[in-house]
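Q: Here's a chain of 99 amino acids. Please give me its 3D structure as tokens.
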Amino acid sequence: MNREQTKAMLPFLQAFAEGKDVQYQNFVGNWVTLASIGESEQPERYRIKPEPIVRYANIYPALQDASILHLTRTIADSKACYSRIACIRIEFEEGQFDD
């Protein structure tokens, strides 16, 4: 690994040392969480695993207004109408549904 590649790997090594999950993009394009980090000549195939985004949605019977995502369960509860069936927690990664 040359100096430039080492500089590019530093953020991943630092994150790994801090206990964050570091992922590597395998040959089919999937991100795999690593148990250890070795030398690589392809630092562009590494990333720090994104923190999940969490939202809450009030669910209503069919034919009612579309659900709105809320930042917290408390906000979702305060905005709920009497006909709410459930409040669900939704967790996703940023960009997960971008296609």
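Q: Can you summarize the key feature?
A: The helical segments are 3-17, 73-79.
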